[in-house]
Design brief:
single chain; alpha+beta; 4-stranded antiparallel sheet
Length: about 675
């Protein structure tokens, strides 16, 4: 057992029995490197990472390789989900070296923590050769390594404003610019299979978020068509778990057929939000089905007894990728019995399989009824028979050895999920979904606050690691969503407290953006800002959304001005390379047309809100009370003749109050 045995991170604990003398990231290891004048190896990964497991098995579990590592390096293991700040700094350095980033990420540092070389996965022979070469270079060519390291550090210290040429724009947000953004994005669409025209295929929720809002403004049928194509294929393909619910991280092919089987909380959270909005717009029953089944999976397998949600399910079980999810033809015949013949036609099951070693992974390209009709299957009672077949497979699969569970609870990812559950509740109206959202919000409130600030990770009853901007951004967004589905003012007050803390401890007034780390957090070789959207929206783009809404809801000009500055400075990138800033583009949509302020006052405020929320109105905020409130937008609002009233307002100017949802929607349509 090495020092990692004392850690709580499941990823670090996976390496606790390695013969490598691993240290967790911290002063003990960093000081050892300085004292002994040894280079540092920082190896970064996460618990559900397949190639991280492969490299551990091939390299880090081997005594002879561990001897080389222990003799010449101070070896540090980092869970990138627990320490995204460390990961971001060294990922940036490796990419500056011309290496394509990914995990496992293995970075070599001088004893003062400056990086000079990095690689991702390497097989054993190459890994040992690299270790020996770096040891020789450190002994004989230290000055050359130090020169390279200093160059990489200086590159990281260049301000984002200078690096990307970010300057204040006009502050005018035009719908015509949105057309240009869409057309630029459209060039990279896969018009046949959905998503972007590349493989592997990742769901990119912030792209779909932009398309939903762009369609709402433009009514451009091409944006809706591509959105629906993408969401249909992601819902039907093998990236979705047809038996158990939930989405895998990405598809290794360009068909959405075969996934990289790990299931991450952040992917599922964001996809829930997108499918909820898309369902509100289209009323497609496929989307509702995927929402309900994914929420059921989250409730059954990913929720802690305290109400928080775990981080991930591994891709592997028993050391084999996807083993939990795949089937041989013989297994399916045995489990399904008389249902096998039609089920096999539906899913194109074969002896040779569509995956490795004669296994089949379930995926479709059309809905159940579309596919069955095309195959001329017996349609009588098909939906019930189909549900029964999937239930049999789920029961059989439950007997298998499950993939590993990463049971740390991350504040940021739980924030994303709270927002997702709120969105799903608004779309579907199921009370248990709201209860799940509120329960998770309470978990964060009661367990992740410490002396007024957020902590990042929770395990075994303890919250650890000072919170990052992603934690504040996601929780503020979550609490604003909770307020809007409950009208419980504790949530908006907590959101305001967190926003104020973030402005005081993360905001760089000179550049107009937020640092990723708290001013009182651990100091690394560079203090980074996260500006560009990826599989998760950047924490700065999320903060810009939050401050815009919070500024309107609380009539607080400071919040609105910060948000405006941030969006204005990103305009150049929005117009030149929008695919990397689509969450910013979604905010641009909100600014290019008026944001509706929906105020509901009276004893039936919650039911009225529930009726209103079924409709697709993305550019809105909803506030309400059953009696009276001191919140700025609710002051002096009253019911009408004893009936619950809806006030539709824009820019602090309200229409006459109405007492029926249909009339409020008519007012919205007339703006």
């Amino acid at each position: 057992m090495n020092r990692l045995s004392q850690q709580t991170s499941p990823y670090l604990l996976q390496h606790a029995h390695n013969p490598v003398d691993w240290y967790p990231w911290g002063q003990e290891a960093l000081q050892k490197a300085k004292t002994e004048n040894k280079p540092i190896l920082v190896s970064i990964g996460y618990s559900a990472c397949h190639w991280c497991h492969v490299m551990e098995h091939e390299c880090f579990e081997k005594e002879d390789i561990a001897q080389v590592m222990n003799a010449h390096f101070v070896c540090i293991k980092v869970d990138r989900e627990e320490r995204p700040d460390v990961d971001a700094v060294y990922m940036d350095a490796v990419q500056a070296m011309g290496v394509r980033g990914g995990w496992p990420l293995n970075v070599f540092l001088l004893p003062d923590s400056r990086p000079f070389y990095g690689v991702t996965y390497l097989p054993p022979q190459n890994w040992v050769q690299l270790l020996k070469s770096i040891d020789i270079a450190f002994q004989k060519n230290y000055d050359e390594l130090a020169g390279s390291a200093e160059g990489f550090v200086q590159n990281m210290l260049v301000s984002d404003t200078e690096k990307y040429g970010l300057t204040l724009g006009s502050g005018h947000y035009a719908a015509s610019e949105l057309d240009a953004m869409f057309e630029q994005l459209q060039r990279n669409f896969d018009g046949e299979k959905g998503g972007m025209n590349r493989a592997p295929k990742f769901p990119m929720p912030s792209i779909y978020k932009f398309l939903l809002r762009y369609f709402d403004i433009s009514q451009n049928p091409e944006s809706l068509s591509h959105l629906q194509l993408s969401l249909d294929r992601i819902a039907l393909g093998g990236i979705y778990d047809h038996v158990g619910g939930g989405w895998a991280r990405y598809s290794v092919d360009d068909e959405w057929f075969i996934p990289h089987f790990e299931k991450m909380l952040y992917d599922n959270a964001q996809l829930l939000s997108i499918y909820a909005e898309a369902y509100s717009l289209t009323k497609n029953p496929l989307y509702a089905d995927r929402l309900l089944n994914t929420i059921q999976w989250l409730q059954n397998e990913m929720r802690s007894e305290q109400g928080g949600f775990y981080s991930a399910l591994d891709a592997d079980s028993q050391g084999v990728e996807g083993k939990f999810y795949i089937w041989t033809k013989a297994e399916l015949e045995q489990v399904l019995g008389p249902d096998f013949e039609w089920f096999a036609k539906l899913y194109n099951i074969s002896q040779q399989g569509n995956w490795e070693d004669g296994h089949n992974h379930l995926h479709l390209t059309g809905t159940l009824l579309q596919t069955a009709s095309a195959l001329k299957l017996d349609m009588d009672g098909l939906e019930a028979r189909y549900a029964g077949a999937l239930k049999k497979l789920a029961e059989k699969r439950a007997e298998r050895i499950r993939p590993g569970l990463d049971d740390k609870i991350l504040t940021s990812w739980n924030g994303l999920l709270i927002k997702a559950l709120a969105d799903s509740y608004r779309a579907l109206g199921e009370e248990y979904i709201r209860e799940l959202a509120v329960s998770a919000g309470v978990f964060i409130r009661d367990n992740m606050f410490e002396a007024g600030k957020l902590m990042h990770s929770y395990k075994n009853g303890h919250a650890t690691v000072t919170g990052f901007l992603e934690d504040y951004a996601a929780v503020i967004e979550a609490y604003l969503a909770l307020y809007q589905i409950t009208f419980d003012e504790q949530w908006i007050r907590l959101a305001q407290e967190l926003a104020n803390y973030t402005i005081h401890h993360f905001y760089d007034e000179k550049e107009g953006f937020f640092y990723f780390t708290d001013m009182y957090g651990e100091r690394l070789i560079a203090r980074k800002k996260e500006l560009f959207d990826n599989v998760i929206p950047s924490s700065n783009s999320m903060m810009a959304h939050n401050l815009y809404l919070l500024g309107m809801m609380l009539d607080e000009d400071q919040y609105a001005k910060i948000s405006d500055t941030m969006l204005s400075k990103m305009t150049k990138v929005l117009l030149s390379d929008v695919q990397w800033v689509t969450n910013w583009a979604a905010l641009y949509c909100m600014r290019a047309s008026p944001t509706a302020e929906i105020i509901i006052v009276g004893p039936e405020a919650d039911q009225m809100r529930k009726d209103f929320d079924r409709f697709f109105v993305p550019n809105k905020l909803v506030m309400g009370t059953t009696s009276r409130s001191n919140l700025p937008l609710l002051e002096n609002r009253t019911e009408v003749n004893g009936k619950t009233a809806i006030y539709v307002c824009y820019d602090k100017t309200c229409q006459l109050p109405v007492t029926q949802v249909e009339h409020a929607l008519d007012q919205l349509a007339g703006i």
